Protein backbone atom coordinates (compact mmCIF):
# COMPACT_ATOMS: atom_id res chain seq x y z
CA UNK A 1 0.00 0.00 0.00
CA UNK A 2 1.37 3.41 -0.99
CA UNK A 3 0.83 6.30 1.43
CA UNK A 4 1.62 10.01 1.16
CA UNK A 5 2.19 11.87 4.44
CA UNK A 6 1.79 15.66 4.23
CA UNK A 7 3.03 17.24 7.46
CA UNK A 8 5.25 20.26 8.20
CA UNK A 9 6.29 19.28 11.74
CA UNK A 10 9.64 17.48 11.17
CA UNK A 11 9.64 15.24 14.25
CA UNK A 12 6.06 14.09 13.69
CA UNK A 13 6.68 13.46 9.99
CA UNK A 14 9.73 11.33 10.75
CA UNK A 15 7.89 9.42 13.49
CA UNK A 16 4.90 8.69 11.25
CA UNK A 17 7.10 7.59 8.37
CA UNK A 18 9.25 5.26 10.46
CA UNK A 19 6.24 3.73 12.20
CA UNK A 20 4.23 3.13 9.02
CA UNK A 21 7.24 1.76 7.17
CA UNK A 22 7.60 -0.66 10.07
CA UNK A 23 4.03 -1.73 9.30
CA UNK A 24 5.17 -2.54 5.74
CA UNK A 25 3.63 0.48 3.99
CA UNK A 26 5.35 2.22 1.07
CA UNK A 27 5.58 5.77 2.45
CA UNK A 28 6.28 9.07 0.66
CA UNK A 29 6.36 12.45 2.40
CA UNK A 30 5.88 16.16 1.75
CA UNK A 31 6.51 18.92 4.29
CA UNK A 32 4.86 21.81 2.45
CA UNK A 33 1.92 22.60 0.18
CA UNK A 34 3.97 23.03 -3.01
CA UNK A 35 5.68 19.63 -2.74
CA UNK A 36 2.43 17.93 -1.76
CA UNK A 37 0.57 19.45 -4.71
CA UNK A 38 3.21 18.19 -7.16
CA UNK A 39 3.20 14.68 -5.68
CA UNK A 40 -0.58 14.22 -5.69
CA UNK A 41 -0.62 15.22 -9.37
CA UNK A 42 2.36 13.13 -10.45
CA UNK A 43 1.76 9.92 -8.49
CA UNK A 44 -1.12 7.67 -7.41
CA UNK A 45 -1.55 6.81 -3.73
CA UNK A 46 -3.80 4.43 -1.84
CA UNK A 47 -4.04 6.83 1.10
CA UNK A 48 -3.11 10.47 1.70
CA UNK A 49 -2.68 11.75 5.27
CA UNK A 50 -2.75 15.55 5.14
CA UNK A 51 -2.22 18.21 7.80
CA UNK A 52 -4.57 21.19 7.41
CA UNK A 53 -2.03 23.87 8.41
CA UNK A 54 0.97 24.00 6.06
CA UNK A 55 3.57 26.81 5.85
CA UNK A 56 2.66 27.78 2.28
CA UNK A 57 -0.96 26.74 1.94
CA UNK A 58 -3.98 24.91 3.34
CA UNK A 59 -4.22 21.14 3.42
CA UNK A 60 -7.91 21.36 2.57
CA UNK A 61 -6.87 22.64 -0.87
CA UNK A 62 -4.95 19.38 -1.36
CA UNK A 63 -8.13 17.47 -0.57
CA UNK A 64 -9.96 19.52 -3.20
CA UNK A 65 -7.21 18.91 -5.75
CA UNK A 66 -7.43 15.16 -5.17
CA UNK A 67 -11.18 15.16 -5.60
CA UNK A 68 -11.07 17.42 -8.67
CA UNK A 69 -8.62 14.94 -10.22
CA UNK A 70 -11.00 12.05 -9.34
CA UNK A 71 -8.30 10.40 -7.24
CA UNK A 72 -9.25 7.07 -5.70
CA UNK A 73 -6.97 7.66 -2.70
CA UNK A 74 -8.43 7.48 0.78
CA UNK A 75 -7.94 10.79 2.62
CA UNK A 76 -7.34 11.33 6.33
CA UNK A 77 -7.10 14.91 7.60
CA UNK A 78 -4.77 15.56 10.54
CA UNK A 79 -4.79 18.85 12.42
CA UNK A 80 -4.05 20.42 15.78
CA UNK A 81 -7.25 22.40 15.36
CA UNK A 82 -10.13 20.71 17.15
CA UNK A 83 -12.52 22.73 15.03
CA UNK A 84 -15.89 21.40 13.96
CA UNK A 85 -15.86 23.78 10.98
CA UNK A 86 -12.54 22.38 9.72
CA UNK A 87 -13.77 18.84 10.17
CA UNK A 88 -17.05 19.45 8.35
CA UNK A 89 -15.31 21.34 5.54
CA UNK A 90 -12.84 18.50 5.05
CA UNK A 91 -15.52 15.84 5.03
CA UNK A 92 -17.68 17.88 2.65
CA UNK A 93 -14.71 18.21 0.29
CA UNK A 94 -14.40 14.43 0.26
CA UNK A 95 -12.05 13.44 3.09
CA UNK A 96 -12.82 10.05 4.63
CA UNK A 97 -11.64 10.60 8.20
CA UNK A 98 -10.33 13.26 10.59
CA UNK A 99 -7.72 12.83 13.30
CA UNK A 100 -6.94 15.50 15.90
CA UNK A 101 -3.41 16.03 17.23
CA UNK A 102 -1.92 14.77 19.42
CA UNK A 103 -2.59 11.15 18.51
CA UNK A 104 -0.89 7.78 18.98
CA UNK A 105 0.75 6.23 15.92
CA UNK A 106 -1.10 2.90 16.35
CA UNK A 107 -4.32 4.93 16.20
CA UNK A 108 -3.28 6.44 12.86
CA UNK A 109 -2.45 2.96 11.60
CA UNK A 110 -5.84 1.65 12.72
CA UNK A 111 -7.60 4.50 10.91
CA UNK A 112 -5.64 3.80 7.71
CA UNK A 113 -6.34 0.07 7.86
CA UNK A 114 -10.02 0.63 8.56
CA UNK A 115 -10.33 3.15 5.73
CA UNK A 116 -8.62 0.86 3.23
CA UNK A 117 -10.74 -2.11 4.21
CA UNK A 118 -13.95 -0.09 4.02
CA UNK A 119 -13.00 1.01 0.53
CA UNK A 120 -12.18 -2.55 -0.47
CA UNK A 121 -15.54 -3.70 0.88
CA UNK A 122 -17.50 -1.04 -1.02
CA UNK A 123 -17.48 -3.25 -4.10
CA UNK A 124 -18.19 -6.44 -2.19
CA UNK A 125 -21.58 -7.76 -1.23
CA UNK A 126 -20.37 -9.53 1.91
CA UNK A 127 -17.64 -9.51 4.53
CA UNK A 128 -17.22 -12.87 6.29
CA UNK A 129 -15.45 -13.62 9.55
CA UNK A 130 -16.01 -17.09 10.96
CA UNK A 131 -19.72 -17.55 11.56
CA UNK A 132 -20.44 -13.85 11.04
CA UNK A 133 -21.37 -12.26 7.71
CA UNK A 134 -21.62 -8.49 7.30
CA UNK A 135 -23.39 -6.91 4.33
CA UNK A 136 -21.92 -3.37 4.29
CA UNK A 137 -24.27 -1.94 1.67
CA UNK A 138 -27.25 -2.76 3.89
CA UNK A 139 -25.49 -2.57 7.26
CA UNK A 140 -26.80 -6.08 7.91
CA UNK A 141 -25.26 -8.78 10.11
CA UNK A 142 -25.96 -12.50 9.72
CA UNK A 143 -25.02 -15.43 11.94
CA UNK A 144 -25.64 -18.83 10.35
CA UNK A 145 -27.68 -17.03 7.65
CA UNK A 146 -30.01 -15.57 10.29
CA UNK A 147 -30.23 -11.78 10.63
CA UNK A 148 -29.03 -10.24 13.89
CA UNK A 149 -30.60 -6.94 14.92
CA UNK A 150 -27.94 -4.46 16.01
CA UNK A 151 -28.07 -0.76 16.77
CA UNK A 152 -26.15 1.53 14.41
CA UNK A 153 -23.32 1.93 16.91
CA UNK A 154 -23.18 -1.83 17.57
CA UNK A 155 -22.89 -2.41 13.82
CA UNK A 156 -20.14 0.21 13.44
CA UNK A 157 -18.35 -1.27 16.45
CA UNK A 158 -18.53 -4.78 14.95
CA UNK A 159 -17.35 -3.56 11.54
CA UNK A 160 -14.37 -1.78 13.12
CA UNK A 161 -13.45 -4.87 15.14
CA UNK A 162 -13.75 -7.18 12.12
CA UNK A 163 -11.74 -4.93 9.80
CA UNK A 164 -9.01 -4.78 12.45
CA UNK A 165 -9.19 -8.46 13.39
CA UNK A 166 -6.33 -9.99 15.39
CA UNK A 167 -5.14 -6.53 16.47
CA UNK A 168 -5.24 -5.15 20.00
CA UNK A 169 -7.41 -2.02 19.88
CA UNK A 170 -7.37 0.36 22.81
CA UNK A 171 -10.61 1.76 24.19
CA UNK A 172 -9.66 5.26 23.08
CA UNK A 173 -8.99 4.17 19.48
CA UNK A 174 -12.34 2.35 19.30
CA UNK A 175 -14.27 5.23 20.86
CA UNK A 176 -12.73 7.88 18.62
CA UNK A 177 -13.35 5.82 15.48
CA UNK A 178 -16.95 4.81 16.25
CA UNK A 179 -18.12 7.87 18.19
CA UNK A 180 -15.87 10.59 16.78
CA UNK A 181 -13.26 13.08 17.97
CA UNK A 182 -15.77 15.00 20.09
CA UNK A 183 -15.49 12.18 22.66
CA UNK A 184 -11.88 13.22 23.41
CA UNK A 185 -12.89 15.28 26.43
CA UNK A 186 -14.79 12.61 28.33
CA UNK A 187 -13.31 11.34 31.57
CA UNK A 188 -14.04 7.66 31.08
CA UNK A 189 -14.55 5.15 28.29
CA UNK A 190 -16.46 2.80 30.58
CA UNK A 191 -19.60 3.19 28.45
CA UNK A 192 -17.78 1.19 25.75
CA UNK A 193 -17.98 -1.86 28.00
CA UNK A 194 -21.78 -1.72 27.81
CA UNK A 195 -21.76 -1.60 24.01
CA UNK A 196 -19.25 -4.47 23.77
CA UNK A 197 -21.26 -6.52 26.27
CA UNK A 198 -24.51 -5.96 24.33
CA UNK A 199 -22.85 -6.76 21.00
CA UNK A 200 -21.27 -9.93 22.40
CA UNK A 201 -24.60 -11.05 23.91
CA UNK A 202 -26.50 -10.57 20.65
CA UNK A 203 -23.91 -12.48 18.65
CA UNK A 204 -23.74 -15.32 21.17
CA UNK A 205 -27.55 -15.54 21.35
CA UNK A 206 -27.58 -15.89 17.57
CA UNK A 207 -25.18 -18.85 17.77
CA UNK A 208 -21.87 -17.14 17.03
CA UNK A 209 -18.67 -18.16 18.81
CA UNK A 210 -17.27 -15.49 21.12
CA UNK A 211 -14.68 -13.70 19.00
CA UNK A 212 -14.25 -10.70 21.31
CA UNK A 213 -11.30 -11.08 23.67
CA UNK A 214 -10.94 -8.54 26.46
CA UNK A 215 -7.46 -7.44 27.50
CA UNK A 216 -8.12 -5.74 30.81
CA UNK A 217 -6.51 -2.34 31.02
CA UNK A 218 -5.52 -2.50 27.33
CA UNK A 219 -8.56 -2.96 25.09
CA UNK A 220 -10.12 -5.61 22.87
CA UNK A 221 -9.07 -8.10 20.19
CA UNK A 222 -11.45 -9.62 17.65
CA UNK A 223 -10.03 -13.08 16.91
CA UNK A 224 -10.99 -16.70 16.27
CA UNK A 225 -8.64 -17.87 18.96
CA UNK A 226 -5.37 -17.09 20.69
Any idea how many domains?
A: 2
CATH topology of the largest domain: Rossmann fold
How much of the sequence is in beta strands? Answer: 15-25%
Side-by-side strand order of the widest sheet: 2-1-3-6-7
What is the CATH level 1 assignment of the largest domain? Answer: Alpha Beta
Kindly state the percentage of residues in helix.
Answer: 40-55%
Q: Determine the structural class based on helices, strands and strand pairing.
A: alpha/beta
Mean pLDDT: 85
Number of DSSP strands? 13
- Sheet having the most strands: 5 strands, parallel
Envelope shape: elongated
Radius of gyration: 18 Å
- N- to C-terminal distance: 27 Å
Sequence of secondary-structure elements: EHEHEEEHEHEHEEEEHHHEE
**Count of helical segments?**
8
* CATH hierarchy: architecture of the largest domain: 3-Layer(aba) Sandwich
CATH superfamily of the largest domain: Response regulator
Amino acid sequence: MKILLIEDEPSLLVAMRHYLEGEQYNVSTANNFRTASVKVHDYDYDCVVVDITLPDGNGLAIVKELKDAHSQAGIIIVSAKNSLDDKLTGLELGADDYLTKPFHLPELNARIRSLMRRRQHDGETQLVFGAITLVPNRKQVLVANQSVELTIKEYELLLFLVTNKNRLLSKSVIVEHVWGDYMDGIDSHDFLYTHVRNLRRKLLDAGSPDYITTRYGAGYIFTEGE
